[in-house]
Design a protein that fits this description.
single chain; 284 residues; alpha+beta; Uridine Diphospho-n-acetylenolpyruvylglucosamine Reductase, domain 3; 3 domains; four-stranded antiparallel sheet; 30% helix; binds flavin-adenine dinucleotide
Length: 284
C-alpha cells in the first residue's frame, strides 16, 4: 500500500522540531518508523508532514544518571542492548534483544515504542517493572511523567498534543534487586500475546519489594498489583511464587482475538508472571 502524500523534514535541534510540530497540527514525529510507516501505508494515519527526529543528537544515547540511567528517546533497541550503562537492567536487555527482527532492533527506538503505546509492545511492561520516568518537552515546558501514569489506554498515553519524549530515566536498582522479562510471543509477528517483567528485591531471605508489569494481554500495559502484594514478604520460593500468581489474571481487562481467546490469555498471565518472577530471583 502507498501512503498519502506528506512533507518530510529533518530538524537538527529539539527547538526546531517543536516549532515544526506546533506549526502543523496534522504533522507527526518520525522515530524508527516501524509502527508509524505501516500505519500510514494502511492509510490508518495520514499526517501532512513527518518530522524526522533522527538528526537530533541530544535525543540519542544512554548515560549514567543519579545512580540510574537516562536513555535518549532516539536510542535504538540495538544500541540499548549494547549499552554498558544498561547492563544491570536485565529485564530491559531481555526485551530489547528479542523485539521484532534485526531491522526492527536497528531502527526501532525506545522513545517511539513508549509514545506509540502498543498494547502488545514489550517495553511498556519492562518500564512499569523498573519504575521508569518519561521525560517530555512541549510548548508549556518540560515535565516528567511517572510510568504508572503514562499508559492510559489502547494506543493512548499521557503525552499531550505537541509533546516530544526526550528521554526515559531508570532509577538505580536497590541492593538485592534482580529483574527479568519473558513473553509468550505471537509466532507470526513476535509481538507479546502475554509478556511479564518482574523486578524483585530480596532482603534477609524475604521479598522486600517487587514490581510486576504486564503487556500483551489487555488494552494497555499495567502492573499486577495483586501479585506484587501477595509476593512481598514471602520467601520467594517456587511455592510462594505459585501461590502469589495463582489468580494473577482475575479482574483484569483482557482481550481475546484470533491468536488467543480471553480465557487462554488470562490463564497465561499466571504462567508468565510465575516464569518472570522465577527468572528474576534466579539472577539474584
Ligand atoms: C515486523 C515488526 C515486528 C515488530 N515486533 C515487535 C515486537 O516483537 N515487540 C515490540 O515491542 N514491538 C515490535 N515492533 C514495533 C517496533 O518496536 C516499533 O519500532 C516501535 O513500536 C515504535 O518505535 P519507532 O521508533 O519505530 O517509532 P515510530 O514508528 O517512528 O513512531 C511511533 C509513534 O510514536 C511517535 N513518536 C516517535 N518518537 C516520539 C518521541 N520521541 N516523542 C513523541 N512521540 C514520538 C510517532 O509520532 C508515532 O506516532 C515490530 C515492528 C515491526 C515492523
Amino acid at each position: 500500500m502507498i501512503p498519502s502524500a506528506f512533507e518530510y523534514a529533518t530538524p537538527a535541534t529539539l527547538n526546531e522540531a517543536m516549532a515544526m510540530l506546533a506549526a502543523d497540527e496534522d504533522a507527526k514525529l518520525l522515530a524508527g518508523g516501524h509502527s508509524l510507516l505501516p500505519t500510514m501505508k494502511l492509510r490508518l494515519a495520514a499526517p501532512t508532514k513527518l518530522i524526522d527526529l533522527r538528526k537530533i543528537g541530544e535525543l540519542r544515547g544512554v548515560s549514567a544518571s543519579g545512580g540510574g540511567a537516562r536513555i535518549g528517546a532516539m536510542t535504538t533497541y540495538a544500541e540499548a542492548t549494547a549499552s554498558a550503562a544498561l547492563k544491570g537492567y536485565a529485564a530491559l536487555i531481555d526485551a530489547t534483544s528479542i523485539i521484532g527482527d534485526t531491522q526492527v532492533r536497528n531502527r526501532g527506538t525506545i522513545g517511539g515504542a513508549m509514545a506509540h503505546g502498543d498494547p502488545a509492545a514489550d517495553l511498556p511492561a519492562v518500564m512499569l517493572a523498573l519504575g521508569a520516568t518519561v521525560n517530555v518537552i512541549g510548548s508549556a515546558g518540560s515535565r516528567a511523567i511517572a510510568i504508572d501514569d503514562f499508559f492510559v489506554g489502547m494506543l493512548t498515553t499521557a503525552l499531550e498534543e505537541g509533546e516530544i519524549i526526550t528521554s526515559i530515566d531508570l532509577p538505580a536498582l536497590a541492593a538485592g534487586t534482580s529483574t527479568a522479562y519473558v513473553k509468550f510471543a505471537n509466532p507470526a509477528s513476535g509481538y507479546a500475546m502475554v509478556g511479564v517483567a518482574a523486578s524483585v528485591t530480596m532482603s534477609g531471605g524475604k521479598v522486600s519489594a517487587c514490581r510486576i508489569g504486564l503487556t500483551g494481554a489487555g488494552p494497555s500495559a499495567t502492573r499486577l498489583e495483586g501479585v506484587e502484594q501477595a509476593l512481598t514478604g514471602s520467601d520467594g520460593s517456587e511455592a510462594s511464587i505459585a501461590s502469589a500468581v495463582a489468580n494473577a489474571g482475575d479482574g483484569l481487562d483482557i482481550l481475546g482475538d484470533i491468536h488467543a481467546g480471553e480465557d487462554y490469555r488470562r490463564a497465561m498471565v499466571s504462567v508468565y508472571a510465575k516464569r518472570a518472577i522465577v527468572a528474576a530471583i534466579a539472577r539474584a
